[in-house]
Amino acid sequence: MSNNIKSKSLAALTLGAIGVVYGDIGTSPLYTIQVIFSEATGIALNQANIIGAISAVFWALMLVVMLKYVILVLRADNRGEGGVMALLALAISSSGSAPNRKKILMALGVFGAALFYGDSILTPAISVLSAVEGMELIKPELSTYVIPIALTILISLFAVQKYGTNTVGKFFGPIVIVWFATLGIVGVHHILQNPVILNALNPIYAFHFLADRGTGVFLAVGAVTLAITGAEALYADMGHFGRPAIRIAWTCLVFPCLALNYLGQGALLLTTPAAVSNPFYLSFPQEWLIPVVVLATMATIIASQAVISGTYSITQQAIQLGFLPRMQILHTSASESGQIYVPAINWLLLAAVIMLTIAFQNSSAIASAYGIAVTGTMLITTILTYFVIRHNWKYPVWLALSATIAFFALDLLLLTSCSAKFFKGGWFPIALGISLVTIMWTWKQGREILLQHIHEDDPKLEDFVKNITRDTKARIERTAIFLCANPDTVPQALMHNLKHNQVLHQTNLILTVEFADTPTVEKEQRFAIKEIGAGFWQVKLHYGFMETPNIPKALAESNLVGFSIDPFTTSYFISRETVISGPGGKMAKWRDDLFALMSRNAGSVVGYFNIPSNSVIELGTRVHI
User: What is the spatial distance between Cα 41 and Cα 26, in angstroms, rounded to a whole number?
Assistant: First the structure.
């Protein structure tokens, strides 16, 4: 019975993975071959180049997606979680305590996360635009409606995110299955018309195609890269659906159908070179165009879902690891903890996607900006994977290098090729990435400076407790929980309470919440409790970076010895800092101002830790940095 339930669960997850994870890479046939043979690349449309280009696309899928991600990178999970931030945490925790290495890895991971945000803005825009542009083939006069329809679809997509990845995936999963089946069927039809295209399965044709390009090889590789965009989403969304479901979906459905469709487009171009203007849509009979455009539009909506849900996961990881301020995080599934929704990120992404769509106007223009974000994240993933293989899996240096150096060289070639389009739109993801890295690094460094300022003059907790035993100050029969970042010093809220209210509680918990570099923490490792004396306890709560902290629930389950936590007689004391920036700080003045702005707009610690608001006493303090 349990095996039957497990198989049903795996089937549901596989369906969800098809509907969410593979939408992005599954819609690449809409534009990839068209871009390869566009005027921008200067590649002549002849038999050798057609077979060579299709061969390059096929082996890009095989090497980058199959070998690198499906076989290797999906193994480098951090307790089931994927994505560049989870990989960063795993690489840092397993590669020793060398400070310089840690800083370099951290910088790489943060930049990789920033580039993924860029991908999550570009993907919805290019995917939806490329599908809606199919209307121009039905009736040229419909071209004026492309942008309004695309924007309507994008707004609707982001509006339904609050219902959860699982709901979206199950709803769209069957549609994507139909999409992939359609890709495969039309591909087989054209292959049968011109079987010579099957020569593309031989990698020697890909080699000759690229070698014959000379200095133009970078333009060719940059165009081929469009076929593998979405590969990073396989890893980023692993926490949502699990490794087995993602692998089964790729092996049994996605890869075969993609390969058949690319081969079919190549066969079409061999037979009908004029179809180069839009080889995907022109693969279908005229009477099929309307249903195919509708199906493609639905598929591209789903394509956007892969990176959107991946962005939620990376945001949560970045918050817990200290790179972003607190935000509201909503769980959308009772059974899958990795399925979350982050409202602030959702609406910021939508605003950025709308501006990008209006600015670039068509999918071909966005394609120039697309590759850099994707290949940059891929390169960083390869570097971090080396440290996991070497230090976490304990493989010898030669084996770790041999497992990653070929992928490193390939990723570097892809990134260099996409960089050739820097001035044609490629600057956008780089500029966005630098901006986001600045924000994330400013927040992390600012928090460190802030905590140092707050606690530099605070008395030691144990000394304070020794002195308080000789104090005759009145005590009230209640429990006070003081949240603080440093458990060894007296919390600011406690000092203010004594100063202004002149009372102490009978039971005082000095509580610190710490986030580990693992996605989850076992319940038996959740607590670290130390009695100080005189009614004071130090309590540390440990959470993983993918867990939602719930302090009242954790304390209720703790079975603390010596006292009990009664929610009706327990007060939570919180110190809220108002950051004042000034000259002479450790960061530049503009970074101080940026940190102060983020600090003022950070989410409430009350909601973030699930503390009942009617039990909270918040005491403010002004801190100059």
Answer: 23
Residue closest to 36 by CA, chosen among 250, 189, 213: 213
CB 551 within 8 A of CB 611: yes
Query: Residue 425 and residue 371: Cα distance in Å, rounded?
Result: 10
Distance of CA 231 to the CA centre of its chain: 12
Q: Read off the pLDDT of each residue in 460-466 and give the average, rounded to a whole number.
A: 84
Q: Which residues contact 138 (CB under 8 A, 6 or more apart)?
A: 289, 290, 293
DSSP-derived pairing of the beta strands 340-341 and 475-483: unpaired
Is residue 109 within 8 A of residue 87, CB to CB? The reply is yes
Q: How confident is the model at residue 59 (pLDDT cuts 50, 70, 90)?
A: very high
Any bridge partners for residue 618, and if so which?
A: 574
- Amino acid (one-letter) located at 1: M
CA distance 358 to 363: 11
Beta carbons of 577 and 450 less than 8 angstroms apart: yes
Nearest to 268 by CA among 247, 282, 287, 248: 282
Is the per-residue pLDDT at 5 higher than 50? no
pLDDT-derived band at 369, boundaries 50, 70, 90: confident
Average pLDDT over every residue of 46-58: 95
**What's residue 261's pLDDT?**
96
C-alpha to C-alpha distance for 408 and 382, rounded to whole angstroms: 6
pLDDT band for position 61 (50/70/90)?
Answer: very high
Residues in the chain, total: 625
Separation between Cα atoms, residue 149 and residue 134, nearest integer Å: 12
**69 DSSP 8-state letter:** I
> What is the per-residue pLDDT for 306?
66
Top mean pLDDT of 218-227, 272-281, 292-301 is at: 272-281
Separation CA 430–CA 168 (nearest Å): 31
Looking at every residue in the chain, the average pLDDT score rounds to 83
Q: How far apart are CA 259 and CA 197, in angstroms?
A: 12
Q: Longest Cα pair distance anywhere in the chain, in angstroms?
A: 96
Distance CA 336, CA 519 (A): 13
Contact 351/93 with Cβ under 8 angstroms? no
Provide the token pair at 157.
């997509």
Residue 391 has φ and ψ, to the nearest 5°, of -105, -25
